[in-house]
Amino acid sequence: MNRCSRRALLRGVALLPLAATVADGLITPTNDRYFPSHGTYAHHTISYDLKLAYDPDSGSLQGRAHIKAVANRRLESVELDLARLTAHSARIDGNTVRARQHKGKLLLEAPYPLAQGAPFTVDVSYGGRPRPVRSPFGPIGWDRTGDPHDGTLVASQPLGAPSWFPCNDRPDDKAAFTFQVSVPHGHHALANGTLRERRRNGRWECWTYHHPGPMAPYLAALYTGRFSHDADNLNLGAAGSPIALHNAYPARLAEPARHDLARQPDMLRAFSNYFGDYPFEAYGAVVVDAELAAPVENQTLSVFGSNHIDGRRGWETLVAHEIAHQWYGNSVSLRNWRDIWLNEGFATYAEWLWSEHIGEDSADQIARQEWRSLHRRHQDLRIADPGHRHIFDDRIYTRGACTLHALRRAIGDHRFFGMLRTWHQTHRGASADTTAFINHADRWATHPIKPLLHSWLYEKPLPPGLS
Prior knowledge:
By secondary structure, this protein is of the alpha+beta class. The protein folds into 2 domains: 21-332, Immunoglobulin-like (Sandwich); 334-457, Neutral Protease, domain 2. 24% of the residues lie in helices and 32% in strands. The chain has 9 helices and 23 strands. It has helices at residues 254-260, 264-275, 316-324, 341-357, 363-375, 394-411, 413-427, 434-444, 450-457; strands spanning 21-23, 26-28, 43-55, 60-71, 75-81, 86-92, 95-96, 99-102, 105-114, 119-128, 141-145, 151-155, 175-184, 188-191, 194-201, 204-215, 222-225, 228-234, 243-249, 282-288, 302-305, 333-334, 431-432. α2 packs across α3 (316-324) and α7 crosses α8. The protein is globular and about 60 Å long. The two termini are 27 Å apart. 51% of the residues are buried.
């Protein structure tokens, strides 16, 4: 999501407290997590296979989730997040089990203790009329679009994924995804990854997508409605196969949307040069038939509102922002929501790099202007630990980008862009935090750089130097 506005799209739910947890062999106390009641470290997920049927007339969703996971400790129950939908039945390793739901949690009693390190499967049949769920930022998750509201969108950042499928809703629990989505014939379904099959069955049509990921649940996307489609294969000049480029928009917006999104290939090539090889097998954008406060960050599938299309590329910085998230935020994910500047500061700086790339304002000019704007505001936010209610404060975006520019000035372009590329290369497909970034940047500096980064990231007063 970009810095223009977040609050209208950011939605979630308060859930049950958890005990101390384990991730990657490290104990992570829940009081160190901004949303400790979302997700669990008791297991980690390998894959989600979602079979969904959506009826736009009734607004009802019927789903079956097949989840492969591995126990991180001995388990007598399995915990998932599922909000505003009802689990009809559940199985673990093929055995029917008792399911309980309470405050957005789905608790499944294991048929026998699951040993630490043991793989297991969960099957959940569920359904209902999905709706956005509540969060400190307002309602978020599944919503309806269009007139007469026969389309849908998902805006899950940070806590909305349980509004449409059972999941381990942590930003660092990343998995492969398969979506089999049935909608009435004449309607279309769009999801992450690549379209593997489109099959008609009577009045229904099933669209099957696969994305090997790995992908965090909040980045999973599903959009239904009526769209015009443009598809191509894009060679970025790097090793590996070309990526599938697929854009979709309402027919009435097709012409201006094609113009506004036409420089996606140039952005992907430029950012591949800055950040390293594009990390996924596909990319595209969806324009939904609704006005959105800001685009929605999803892996391989950025989403824009109809209000972001003007036929004049008036919102092109947002296009660049969402593409940059494929590297920073999607491929390299945050370990904890406190580290969100690693997503948004990087994507905001990519906007400035794109401006520089096309010969408009340089990143240095923009950084100086943004520094002056920040200087006029309250100095009461640590962007590397802003508190859970402030993770979408605009200052995280602009001060995060200014942090990167200050680092660029301190170590020089050659080392700075080498540092960016190796940051992605080192953590590609995984999660990272601010401490890891500071240590990584320090290895690229010829003089101590940690005090500079600490002042930008952890101190409230705005550092000097960019005015």
